[in-house]
Amino acid sequence: MAGRTFVATTALAASADAAFDWHEAPGAFERLTPPWERIRVLRHEGGIRDGARVSLLVGPWPLSLRWDLEHRDYRKGRAFTDTQVRGPFRSWTHVHRFIPTGPDSCRLEDDIEYELPGGRLGALVGEPIVRWKLTRLFEFRHAVTRRALSPPAR
After folding, report:
1. How many CA atoms lie within 13 A of 59 on its CB side?
2. Which end of the chain is more exposed for a tag (fewer CB within 10 A), N or C?
3. What phi-psi label fits residue 46: left (phi over 0), alpha (psi between -120 and 50 degrees) or beta?
4. CATH class of 4-149
């Protein structure tokens, strides 16, 4: 069964370096987690640099699942990747890119490649749900990021 790709992009009124720094700051994951998602951070060690680890508990109890991710491909001001080590997907790789479009602007791009468990049946049943959840999640995340990085009103 082939993997799937989900891409979300948004224009930001901030340099790529500033947007990256905002994502690297402590608490960024929590700021980017929608209030409707049932996600609990069990452990977060090492920030977003290569080898850093995040362990999450996702979903409502008693159906919650552990999701362990490792950060890789850290390029200061430009990109970092989180890859599933253990979790609900057969595979998951999320590349966060910060692409300069001017001195005080950039494009944030979230590129996710994933494969659902359960073969064809898992894909048939799970794909519409995963796409809907990812769309909602990244609409929220990008709106939060745009608001946080927008220049103050005059």
Report:
1. 9
2. C
3. left
4. alpha beta
- Cis peptide leading into residue 62 (ω within 30°): yes
**Is the Cβ–Cβ distance between 77 and 70 less than 8 Å?**
no
Listed in sequence order, the residues at least 6 apart from 23 whose beta carbon sits closer than 8 Å to its beta carbon are 48, 80, 96, 98, 145
Residue 69 has which token pair? 């991710």
CA gap 65, 56 in Å, rounded: 8
CB 54 within 8 A of CB 66: no
Q: How far apart are CA 110 and CA 146, in angstroms?
A: 14
Overall average pLDDT of the 105-121 stretch: 92
Q: What angle do CA 75, 135, 71 make, to 5 degrees?
A: 25
* Beta-bridge partner residues of 89: none
Confidence tier at 1 by pLDDT (50, 70, 90) = very low
Q: How far apart are CA 108 and CA 16, in angstroms?
A: 8
The predicted-structure confidence for 12-26, as pLDDT tens digits, reads as follows: 999 999 999 999 999
Residue with tokens 């999640």: 137
Domain ranges of the chain: 4-149
Place of tokens 């850290």: 74
The pLDDT, as a whole number, for residue 154 is 61
